[in-house]
Amino acid sequence: MRNVAKTFGRNPVLRNVSLEIAEGEFLTILGESGSGKTTLLRIVAGFESASSGELWMGAERLDGQPPYRRPVNTVFQSYALFPHLTVEENVAYGLRVVKRPEHEVNQRVAEALDKVKMTAHAKKKPSKISGGQQQRVALARALVNRPRLLLLDEPLSALDANLRRQMQVELKSLQRDVGIAFVFVTHDQEEAMVMSDRIALLRSGELEQVATPREIYNRPATAYVAQFVGHTNLLTGEVQNGVVRSGPLSWPTALPDGPALFSLRPEHIRLAGTSVSSDVVRIRGRVTQQAFHGATDLVRVDCGGLVLVMRTASSSAALNEVELEFSASDAVVVRESPERN
Amino acid sequence: MFSRAYKTVVTVPPLVWVTVFLLVPYLLMFCYSFWSVSPSQTIVHSWNLDNYKELLQKTVYWQTLLRSMWIAARVMLFSLLLGYPLAYFLSFYAGRRKDLLYQLVIIPLWVSYLVRAYAWKTILGSDGVLNTLLQYAHVTKHPLDFLLYSPFAVVLTLTHIYTPFTFLPIFAALEHIPRNLVEASHDLGATPAQTFWKVIFPLSIPGVLAGATFAFVLSLGDFLAPLLLGGPSGIMISNIVVSLFGAAYNWPLGAAISLAMLVIVISLLVFSERLEKEWSFS
């Protein structure tokens, strides 16, 4: 994808999106609703044409080609199974329209249905099977064509939480199994983290960061990324002569002088112990809120005007006056995310 | 949920209406069809099957019935051939002009049937618009006389009148097809033509059946178009019923023919209803 942009009327939806997808990669396009992620997917599929920019697949230029000539298949958000065809006929559709020999069609359909464990329902109409099953059929219908790229438009959003987690795992192992590049669109950052090789975070039609889930989480490039993916404390600071000052906090740094913004994950803050590591920053504060999150608690601590959120092991004991510490190296510098519209 | 009184108030008037204006007349017709007319032109209330025998034996009746069905079948075919492409274009390609074009299709329905039938009379007549034009252009020397007072004129007029009735259900069916199915089909490698025949057309069949039924049933019972434009060769079964109830004063035979038509039409409706159910997926 080179410099893809899209404008609806006078409303820019995508701006200068450049993205490279590797063979066999699981790439997630993550973004809030309205960030343009579905539009981006539709441009790759060919349902929408970009206002400018180019799409290439290897040496072949894709934009300008109608969707039915692109070696790309899509799993739609609402599955879009053909209601008048059986599960089997739905899966066979893509092979039949390109007139593959019937014995090959039957064999590949059987394999695809087997892969998604839907062989038992082959003769049923889509309206007679559950949402999760429809999901699998939609997947089989796309994969049976052996596309070079599979696009998935929030395919799990209609499923309930339990089934969803199960499908995340299945989808990921299926992807490894078939070795086809997946471009997965979602607004769910947890889903993106669990499944992806890389995440492309889209905000108001522009890419904020493209990186592995770990990198996105541990080294967010911008304040927006840091806040969108997981919880974080954003600290505005001022660097002067190798020292950062942020409210009541200060720690040594190698940054040049000037304003700086830091992201500090709650799990990197802990109750002050006896460690005497040189880059430890300590501060006293009063607990204002302690929220139970299962295995951990998120604790809000008021440190004299600066509120820090800390993650601790879950405990029923209410905390009150605490001394906190964190390693200065865990406060990651991030860029400001300017407002866009 | 609703009180008894409310339910009564709401349901009784339509029930009374249907009973008085539909069930009772049909029942009377049913009785009449088994009665007979005496030589002195009075209706004799003696039960017999003579009217039905006459209907089957006298060729003029069942031949006219067959011809009416043939005319109705042609009207159905032509309204489908006109209505489907129109509905398809409007639903898929009209874009922002969709509402306007839809209204343009509907507006002729507001014009009186008689006016439209008479309009065809002035167009098709021997010194009508069409013949004058053809003569002026030296396509023909003498006015073409098959244009008016022929089954052709009846089929043409009825097609004009009933095409909106086939258009409407087809348009509704096409509008109900989720557009992502069309996208899915293209995505899976089907060309637009393949997509039409494998996805769009099968899913629009309930609308086609409803439209075909409208056109066939409405034209089968039509008597004004044949009266105004049909001439002797374009007589339809309803014209015979009209004359039997009128000048010929043979209500029993007229009732028998009407009931025979009613049976045909109801069987058709049941049949198309079944087919529609078979082809609907939701």
Describe this structure in words.
The complex is a heterodimer of chains A (341) and B (282). Helix content of chain A is 25%, strand content 35%. Chain A folds into 2 domains: 2-225, 3-Layer(aba) Sandwich (Rossmann fold); 231-334, RNA polymerase II/Efflux pump adaptor protein, barrel-sandwich hybrid domain (OB fold (Dihydrolipoamide Acetyltransferase, E2P), Beta Barrel), CATH 2.40.50.100. The mean pLDDT of chain A is 87. Chain A contains 8 helices and 21 strands. Chain A is elongated and about 75 Å long. With 341 residues, chain A is of the alpha+beta class. In chain A, the strands form 5 sheets. Chain A has a 6-stranded mixed beta sheet, sandwiched between helices. A 5-stranded antiparallel beta sheet of chain A has the order 14-13-12-15-21. Chain B is globular and about 75 Å long. Chain B has a single domain (49-278), classed as MetI-like fold (Orthogonal Bundle). Chain B is 74% helix and 1% strand. Chain B is mainly α and 282 residues long. Chain B has 12 helices and 2 strands, in the order αββααααααααααα. The model of chain B has no long low-confidence stretch (mean pLDDT 89). Classes of the chains: A alpha+beta (341), B mainly alpha (282). At the A-B interface, strand 7 and helix 2 of A face helix 8 and helix 9 of B.
